[in-house]
Write a structure and sequence with these properties.
154 residues, mainly alpha
Length: 154
């Protein structure tokens, strides 16, 4: 059973208050992320493989090196991940248009539909949770979403 949510202290107060707020934010984001990971559609894919597919969906085709940078993994690790995704029919490797030494990774239609189904499932689960919030909490969460998105990309 999860511990009850604690409200974050206001920002800009005592440095200890900021440290408490950062700790509470980290804890809440990690707990929610873990719970969202359990809402996967295809259990045969690792969270890293799902993340790579999500990056391809968001950014389009990329070389394994570009994917490694975006996913913050070493290139040899990305090469293995791409090989596993290719074996599962979720990506295809195509010749790079300008550099014959490189390949470009592109997601397949199967990957696109799987990601869409996964998004629907996770969004439905999250919408159910949000239904338990009052109007003020929901407004605060909606206002925080762009800030959390910015943090995720810093």
């Amino acid at each position: 059973m999860s511990e009850p949510a604690r409200p974050l202290p206001p920002a800009g107060g005592h440095p200890d208050d900021d440290a408490v707020a950062v700790n509470a934010l980290r804890s809440a984001v990690m707990r929610l992320a873990r719970r969202l990971k359990h809402q996967r559609v295809d259990e045969s894919l690792s969270p890293t493989e799902m993340s790579v597919l999500g990056t391809l969906a968001l950014c389009g085709s990329a070389t394994p090196g570009e994917l490694a940078r975006k996913e913050h993994v070493q290139p040899p690790s990305m090469t293995r991940i791409v090989a596993m995704l290719e074996a599962k029919g979720l990506v295809r490797l195509e010749p790079h248009p300008e550099d014959r030494r490189q390949k470009v990774v592109t997601q397949t239609e199967r990957a696109e539909s799987m990601l869409e189904e996964s998004r629907r499932k996770r969004n439905a689960w999250l919408a159910e949770l949000v239904g338990g919030l009052d109007d003020e909490e929901w407004a605060a969460l909606r206002a925080a979403a762009p800030v959390l998105e910015k943090l995720a990309h810093l």
